[in-house]
Design a protein that fits this description.
This protein is an alpha+beta fold and about 110 residues long. Helix content is about 20%, strand content about 30%. The chain has one domain. The longest helix has 13 residues. The protein is globular and about 40 Å long.
Length: about 110
C-alpha cells in the first residue's frame, strides 16, 4: 500500500477535560514503513506541509515511537500481534496525536471555539 493510500481526513471530534479537538488527519500503519515515519506523514498532512518540514520539535522529544511500535506491533512470545491493547496519546506542537494498537494514527487540532 502506498503512503497516499493509507490516509484519510475527517471531522471527528475528540473531547478531553480542557478542550475539544477535531481530527485533521488519519493514516493506517501496516508495518511497511516504520511507525515514526507514518506518524510524521500524518502530522505533515494535518499541518498541510511536506513530511520533510516536520522537524520542530523532533518527534523523539514527544514520544518513543520505536518503543511504541514494539509494544503494539512487535511479536509477542506466542507470536501473536498486536501485543498490547489500547492507544497512546501525546502532543506534538499544537496537535494531539493518537496511536492505536489497531494501527490507526489520528492527528487532532484544537477547535477554535
Amino acid at each position: 500500500m502506498s503512503q497516499e493510500d493509507r490516509h484519510s481526513t475527517g471531522g471527528k471530534h475528540l473531547d478531553d477535560r480542557e478542550s475539544q479537538w477535531t481530527q485533521a488527519a488519519q493514516r493506517h500503519y501496516d508495518g511497511e514503513f516504520e511507525l515514526s515515519t507514518e506518524i510524521v506523514y500524518t502530522i505533515a498532512e494535518a499541518k498541510g506541509v511536506s513530511p520533510t518540514e516536520v522537524r520542530s520539535p523532533p518527534l523523539y522529544e514527544c514520544v518513543d515511537a520505536a518503543c511504541l511500535e514494539n509494544a503494539f506491533f512487535g511479536e509477542s512470545a506466542g507470536g501473536d500481534s498486536p501485543r498490547t491493547n489500547g492507544s497512546v496519546q501525546f502532543t506534538y506542537a499544537e496537535f494531539l496525536v493518537n496511536v492505536g494498537n489497531d494501527g490507526w494514527i489520528q492527528v487532532y487540532e484544537p477547535d477554535d471555539r
